[in-house]
Amino acid sequence: MAESQISNPIKPVFKLAKRIIACLDIKNGRTVKGVRFEDIRDAGDPVELAKKYADEGADELVFLDISASHESRRIRLDWVEAVARSINIPFTVGGGIAEIQDVQDLLMAGADKISINSAAVRKPELIHEFSQKFGVQCVVVAIDARHTPEGWRVYLSGGRVATQLGLLEWALEAEKLGAGEILFTSMDNDGVQSGFALEPLLSLSQVLSIPLIASGGAGTMPHFEEVFRVARVDAALAAGVFHYGTMRIPELKTYLKSMEIPVRLS
Question: Which of 1, 96, 161, 234 could form a disulfide with 68 if both were Cys (CB 3.0 to 4.6 A apart)?
């Protein structure tokens, strides 16, 4: 969506560096990528990709076991440990997290933050429990949503289960319960590479007081500039454009810097 289609957004005054986050969606020990949560295809070895992105200057790495919740199992700690050993940047891990011990084990395996999605909707008190035990900065609440005739609605289990929960309603509740960040993925934009979902992202950034991460839709460097400038998000996450060589993180950051978007250069 072009900037002109958003109702006269006020140009933000950037104070903090914007983060570029590389995402590894993991299935059966391999990095995969789909389109709108379907048509999953292989994208490479997670350890090799993690090291590559850390070396190239990614600000953070997100590792999501995309089938753990659906299969009602815990995430494989050996996968997490292998990635953690290969990087030196903040590392968020999600998938199948349902109790305090899961978080403890992931942090011991090398994660810096944990991401909860389906479990948080089904048992919201987990957000409070995790933030009280491990600190607000450790808890990322991931939200998958798509636009419906009733508005943006939240989906669970890797997009397989629809709910009647509204996107803004749930994001605000998650913040109230103790989330340290919100990671919003537009299922409509995921893997399409036509740009981020600016309208819901702007709505979220206007009501949240915690950092907001945009996910779903990155295809070109201007898409990143647009989501930072128009939707005022704190970080932008991408997967396929990095996995398949559409763009490299150093060139992306150099471009953003040239467009006066503050980023950390290696």
Answer: 96
Is 190 a known active-site residue? Answer: no
In this structure, the dihedral spanned by the alpha carbons of residues 202, 203, 205 and 209, taken in order and rounded to 10 degrees, is: 170
Using an 8 Å Cβ cutoff, are 145 and 174 in contact? no
Each residue's pLDDT, cut to its tens digit, for the chain (266 residues) gives 443 344 444 445 566 899 999 999 887 767 775 555 444 556 578 899 999 999 999 999 999 886 665 565 678 898 899 999 999 999 999 988 999 999 999 999 999 999 999 999 999 999 999 999 999 999 999 999 999 999 999 999 878 899 999 999 999 999 999 999 999 999 999 888 899 999 999 999 999 999 999 999 999 999 999 999 999 999 999 998 998 888 999 999 999 999 999 999 97
> Comparing C-alpha atoms, which of 52, 127, 50, 128 is closest to residue 90?
50
In a domain? residue 5 = no
Report the predicted TM-score, pTM, of the whole model to 2 decimal places. Answer: 0.89
Instruction: Determine the structural domain holding residue 187 and report its residue range.
Output: 17-258
- Residue 2 inside a domain? The answer is no
Q: Respond yes or no: is residue 65 known to be catalytic.
A: no
Count of structural domains, the chain? 1
Q: Residue 10 falls within a domain, yes or no?
A: no
Q: Which of 25, 65, 102, 190 is catalytic?
A: 25
